[in-house]
Amino acid sequence: MDLTVKVGRTVLPNPVGVASGTFGYGSEYERLIDLDRVGALFTKAVTIEFRPGNQVPRIVETSSGMLNSIGLANVGVERFIAEKLPFLSTLSCAVFANVAGSSVDEYIEVVERLDPHRLSGYEINLSCPNVKEGCIAFGTSPAQVERLTAAVRARTGAPLVVKLTPNVTDITEIARAAEAGGADAVTCINTVLGMVIDVKTKRTILPGGTGGLSGPGILPIGLAATYRVARAVGIPVFGVGGIMDADGAIQYLLAGASAVQLGTANFADPSTCGRVLDGIVRYMDENGLERVSDFGRFID
Ligand SMILES: Cc1cc2nc3c(=O)[nH]c(=O)nc-3n(C[C@H](O)[C@H](O)[C@H](O)COP(=O)(O)O)c2cc1C
After folding, report:
1. Per the count of CB atoms within 10 A, which of 142, 171, 203, 222 is most buried?
2. What is the pTM of this model?
3. Residue 208 domain-assigned?
């Protein structure tokens, strides 16, 4: 059975990745799970400067998942290189740095500083709903997405994965723009815009009002987006959103994803990605699938 998945020049040992912002910089999970079983690790967003993130509370639990407004809190690119990369470079899985910025130049600068360190690739986060300075405009405009992707593409030969926001009218247009700009893959989806109000205080729980919904409630949204995007582009799609078990991951692979990422599930139970991988292998065995791409042939 062949579990590998190719993204540009990078080969993932298996199709089960861990999603940006839910797995820190990897070392946080070192003592909890066998990191050798992770197919691809997507780091917390990396920006030029250190970002303390948004005011607390930044997380609210809902009946079907969690709402967050972290605000891209991260150590900044220089500390990422000095303090986080040495550990990440010891891992056998693919490691993608999730890159964010508030202008095209900032994305380019992060990628240029990281490039000599030979990561497996970059995941361009176009879609963070919590950054006010313009990130949201990048992710919602096909022209901007193509421009940003092409600008980063011109600076690096490493695989580029563009992460899409579901908070748009037509996600397939954005996916096509990323492909036209030179992306090697897309990630589908980031969190869904949401809100929670405390009826006692009559205020939103998150200080900024809205946040990004993740977890089980968004699985059907991510799945429909993945299904549509996989038919709109010719590059691999990472399916992400609400996967809590092997069944969820298999649904994404059947919908047309080449690989999956688990996010919120890592908080609920860090061992989920190992169990999801075991479940995928069992399903492939029971259904006579020889390679991960075989999942794609069942649904038109
Ligand atoms: C606490 C938290 C932080 C996140 N931080 C990032 C981030 O820095 N960059 C990014 O592209 N996505 C980020 N995400 C989005 C996840 O990578 C993922 O796309 C989303 O949570 C949907 O997947 P899930 O339902 O499996 O969690 C974050 C999600 C959560 C819950």
Report:
1. 222
2. 0.97
3. no
